[in-house]
Known about the structure:
Blueprint: E1 7-10, H1 16-26, E2 32-35, H2 37-43, H3 46-53, E3 57-64, H4 68-81, E4 85-89, H5 94-104, E5 111-115, H6 123-128, H7 135-149, E6 153-155, H8 161-168, E7 173-176, H9 195-201, E8 205-208, H10 210-213, H11 218-228
Parallel strand pairs: 1-2, 1-8, 2-3, 3-4, 4-5, 5-6, 6-7, 7-8
Helix pairs in contact: 4-5, 5-7, 7-8
Amino acid sequence: xxxxxxxxxxxxxxxxxxxxxxxxxxxxxxxxxxVGLELLTSAGPDVVKSLVARGKxxxxxxxLFEIPNSVAGAVRAAGxxxxxMVTVHGMGGSGIMSAAVEASxxxxxxxxxxxxVVTSMRDADLADVGVTGAVDQQxxxxxxxxxxxxxxxVIASPQDVAALRGTMGSxxxxxxxxVALPGDSPAEHTRxxxxxxxxxxxxxxxVVGRSVTRAADPAITFRSVRASLxx
Length: 231
């Protein structure tokens, strides 16, 4: 895969103007953007439509966790917007994930990804909600459930990638938030890694955020990330 196509830039902005500025400054360098709940709530679906109209791919990070009928409706709405990826919570179980996958079949380009364990969570956080076992065990458990439900891939930390690739096989998407450039702070992510290490371990895509979007020159930083992915 072309390294440029493996990099998803997270538009974790609280307003449309800031997001548009990032996209404008990156220009043709970046092909793929993540839109999460903050920007979607602030700017509405028009921000997604605008990106698609510009020829960009969009990862709509909804983390859906609702009754199956509602999840299916949200997936169909995402597909109608033209997005390439949408997320559901693996913790929602087989019913939710299967409903999402079935709804996605109306949209051949749409991929359903299951969130395993949020990259800010530690073993103690799982224990707080009654999940026994370590984070890495829970990640693999939910990944197996997602694969059985027909999901196209999973969301997990860079530190989970190697084990996941062995579990999910060569065809699954493994998208990794929580990556940071060497020397950068991993922010709230507790299980970080570099983009290069994540791809080397078998990630299909890496999600980069502030390292690029808050750089003095986002395009130069993006090119640096892309160069780091070339063996």
